[in-house]
Design goal:
single chain; 77 residues; mainly alpha
Length: 77
């Protein structure tokens, strides 16, 4: 019985020793995923869209406000 216990301890020690010498696998990264996208590009598109909306609102704001007020006056009658 003692031989089986020593054999078990030796097997576990060998397994632990081998697992410590094996290089760990690198973690999987998604940096090279083909559908990841270009974050700075999306930020630029969003920023340009916001600037475009602000510019259009600045130019067409008074006309849109007058049209809205006219529609509200028509509905109110």
């Amino acid at each position: 019985m003692a031989r089986h216990g020593l054999a078990l301890v030796a097997a576990v020690a060998a397994l632990i020793g081998r697992s410590l010498t094996v290089a760990p696998r690198p973690r999987k990264t998604y940096a090279d995923h083909p559908e990841r996208g270009d974050v700075p590009g999306w930020v630029m598109i969003t920023l340009m869209s916001a600037v475009l909306v602000a510019a259009l609102l600045a130019v067409a704001g008074p006309a849109l406000e007058a049209m809205f007020n006219q529609a509200m006056d028509t509905v109110g009658k």
